[in-house]
Amino acid sequence: MAADYAIFAGGCFWCMVQPFDQQPGIQSVVAGYTGGHVANPTYEQVASHTTGHTEAVKITYDPTVISYRQLVDIYWRQTDPTDASGQFQDRGDSYRPVIFYHSDEQKQVAEESKAALAASEKFEKPIVTQIEPEKPFYVAEEEHQDFYRKNPLRYKIEEMGGREQFIKQNWNN
C-alpha cells in the first residue's frame, strides 16, 4: 500500500512534530501552514494573523504500520481540544486546533473520534477542535523543521509553556 498523509494543527508546529516523528511507520513530519488565503506565506505573515493560516504538521505515514485512527488518537493527546483560541501559551487563529482531512474516510474517522472524546466526558468544556477539508499546505522555512532536534533547550521551554503540564494532567491518568 502506498504512503498516505495527515494534516493536523494544534498550536505551535514546533511542538507538534516530535510526538508523531517518534512513531513506527512515520516517514516524515513537516512543519508548515495551511487553511489560509495567501499563497506561499512566510512565518512573519502567518504570525501577523492576517493570512488565515494555521501552523500545522503534514505527516506522511505507512498505513500498513500505523493507521490514521492511531494518528488522530496521538493528535488529541497533544492538544487542548477545548480551546478554540489557540493552544497553551500560543494565542490566536494561527494556533487554533484543526484536523484537516483529504478523504471521506479521514473525515469519518476524525468525526467519530471527536464524538467519542466528547462522550467520554474527559473534559468539562465542549470539544471545539474543528474538522475541515484540507487546503493547500505550504512548507515552513527550514529553521522551523525538526525544531525539537535543532534547538532542544528552546523546544523544552516551549513545551513547558503549558502543553507538557496539560498533557500530564489530562492524558497520563
TrEMBL record:
Residues 6-156 form the Peptide methionine sulphoxide reductase MsrA domain. The keyword Oxidoreductase applies. Belongs to the MsrA Met sulfoxide reductase family. GO terms for molecular function: L-methionine:thioredoxin-disulfide S-oxidoreductase activity; peptide-methionine (S)-S-oxide reductase activity. This is Peptide methionine sulfoxide reductase MsrA. It holds the Pfam family PMSR. It comes from the Bacteria. It comes from Lentilactobacillus senioris DSM 24302 = JCM 17472. Its EC number is 1.8.4.11. HAMAP family: MsrA. Has an important function as a repair enzyme for proteins that have been inactivated by oxidation. Catalyzes the reversible oxidation-reduction of methionine sulfoxide in proteins to methionine. Gene3D superfamilies: Peptide methionine sulphoxide reductase MsrA. InterPro entries: Met_Sox_Rdtase_MsrA_dom (IPR002569), Met_Sox_Rdtase_MsrA_sf (IPR036509). The gene is msrA. NCBIfam families: msrA.
